[in-house]
Amino acid sequence: MKLCKILLPLLLLAGCHGQSKKATGAWLNENNVRVAIDASFQSVMDGIVSAYGYKNVEASVSSIYTSEDSVLWLLKKDSVRCAIATRPLTQDEKDFIKATYKLTARQQIIAYDAFALIVNKACSDTVITTAEIRDIVSGKITRWEQLSHSKRKGELHLLFDQSGSSTVRFMRDSLCHGQELKGNIYAQGSHLSVIEAVRQRTDVIGVVSTDWLRSSGTSAMTNFRDLDVRVMLVSRGNSPEQLSHICRPYQYYIATGEYPLIRAVYAINTDPRPQSKQSLFYYFVKGDKGQRIICNDSQLLPYLSVQIRDVYVHD
Length: 315
Hints:
alpha/beta; D-Maltodextrin-Binding Protein, domain 2; 2 domains; ten-stranded mixed beta sheet; three-stranded mixed beta sheet; 15 strands
């Protein structure tokens, strides 16, 4: 008999109330939906956009996948009125949108994401601490033999998606305390390019949103064993000796907070019309249907409460 952990979403859909001023944007037809999305979440958001389109056949939905910097720039320029990003708008940004376009921004956490560190399938070095990750992005660690649990030697290169991405902002703000990144760190252009580089090279560590490692199809991945890359175990400890709690970025470890490289995902909406297809998309993402897709069809954790239960499965 095997003991497994499962996540059960408690989906409580909040009501939407209130009156707004009539929008005057020439492009903003009642049925138009324009959403700019951090490319880290393209896989799961493709599913949410498709599900919304099936439910609202009259809606004209266009999604733009780009870096987080570009996502928020499009929102602040009123080129889109819905965005998916890993940070909320600052007060200055909200004030700018209010003063320039007479629009009020609504924003809500919709999920929690985790970074996965990946190495070539041939590598046996799969344990790393957050302190070592911090030293890599600050330029203190540049070689494999500087890692406490590495059997490799030679230069170590860290690969991420692109400059201006939420990955870079997380590494700079959360790991480097706002300082610029240093060392052997290179942009590849996209998450897929990072994965492909890791497949071909044994001297690199790739940083990707964990949802990019999902197996094909619509089911959420339950393990990382069938991948053609290795997912590293990460310890929250600040020293190599503190390795009692090492784990990979499964939904369960995101929910318990044991996995250290976690970030929130936000939906932001500036459309003033509560019943437009644009606003209804925002409520769809953070409501029952959107949260179920996030929970069941991605490696992200939905923001709505979850229960963790022990389930016994017969072998």
